[in-house]
Amino acid sequence: MYNDTVLNHFATPRNVGSIPDADGLGISGNPVDGDKITIYIKVQQNVLTAVKFKTFGCGAAIAASSMLTVLATGKTLSEALKITNADVAEALGGLPEQKLLCSNIAADSLHAAINDYTNKNTNLTDSKATAAILFETENAEPALSEKIEGLTD
Predict the structure, then answer these.
(1) Contact 34, 56 (CB under 8 A)
(2) Which of 13, 12, 19, 76 is nearest to 48 (CA)?
(3) Beta-bridge partners for 86
(4) Higher confidence at residue 80 or residue 141?
(5) Is a pLDDT exceeding 60 seen at residue 39?
(6) Which of 87, 14, 80 is nearest to 47 (CA)?
(7) Is the model more confident about 3 or about 142?
């Protein structure tokens, strides 16, 4: 059912645990099957220096969480926000069809953690404005973009 990469990330997951003084925390879950993924991030100069996870769920959810931490660590905030659940599944070499929708929610948790971080550090309350800034879209106000660029650890 699972390929060797998925089995490896399930059997020996990377970056398991919490970060007690995390800069951002993101949680997502699937009410249908009960999977829950919590992502913790540390940020220095807009770069994810540490990404850890705690997951309650099946092997696919654990493997997806593990792979996400590998993909996201060392990325800028805007690069990390571009990681999708499909990217995680692809990096794992694919997931069974029945697991794609229910267990591959790790990127959602990462995005929530980044949103939590930016809200704490820029006094932004509008998540659409935060996303616009981090995705570097034309909707972002220049003054807010400067705030994001000026964030340090």
Answers:
(1) yes
(2) 76
(3) none
(4) 80
(5) yes
(6) 80
(7) 3
pLDDT for 135 beyond 90: no
The count of residues in the chain is: 153
DSSP the chain: ---HHHHHHHHS-SSBS--TT-SEEEEEE-TTT--EEEEEEEEETTEEEEEEEEEES-HHHHHHHHHHHHHHTT-BHHHHHT--HHHHHHHTT---HHHHTTT--HHHHHHHHHHHHHHHHH----HHHHHHHHTT-TTS-HHHHHHHHT---
CA dist., res. 88 & res. 63, Å (int):
9
Q: Give the tokens for residue 112.
A: 């929530």
pTM of the model: 0.80
